């Protein structure tokens, strides 16, 4: 009987703990949604977002579902209307992959966008339909890389931000001392490095936002892509400096 009572109390304690964790998680979800709604409202006061479907030619790779094309179309709503007009005349080749990626050739207006389905983005969607789309979150991120290739000045602004983020203001001096981003993905042969050390900043999203591919003003970065995810309510926190930068870019470029 004593053992049964102890087991009952242990079970009750665990249930209470689980309920508390669930309540905290729900509160974080609610806060993320409220914050995202406030950001969207503020941004829409200064410029138009979405409200335009670019004249883009879509092609789908083998076994790529039509839904992934629809994910990209839904993701257009996260970006300024002016940026969407810059997509007119582009050809997007969409393919299903384990990990998302985007490669763009501005000279011929062709983009290869790979999308994965990494779970339902329950805190992120700009519409009820997108809440059930497991590729939407990745689509917004990869579409950010396409915007880098097609919106004049965007990559240079990110390059400037990253050079200012380097302690001495010169990112080139950091290249021999860049740090591994971390094990958020199975990186395979790719060596993903950035400005932040894991022991100094345990937040993987921060480390990925400060990732470095190449110190050139015409190369891709992860500042916009990670920042826009957080601006629109994706789970997890992000360095406020990144958020401020992305809000400024979305509102003013």
Provide key terms for this protein.
single chain, 253 residues, alpha/beta, four-stranded mixed sheet, 9 helices, 47% helix
Description:
- This protein has 253 residues and is α/β, with parallel strands linked by helices.
- 47% of the residues lie in helices and 11% in strands.
- The chain has nine helices and seven strands.
- It has helices at 2-46, 66-75, 81-85, 128-131, 136-150, 154-165, 204-209, 223-231, 240-252; strands at residues 57-60, 91-96, 101-105, 110-115, 179-180, 193-194, 211-212.
- The strands form two sheets. The protein has a four-stranded mixed beta sheet with strand order 1-2-4-3, with helices on one face. A three-stranded antiparallel beta sheet has the order 5-6-7.
- A hairpin with a 4-residue loop joins β3 (101-105) and β4.
- The model has no long low-confidence stretch (mean pLDDT 82).
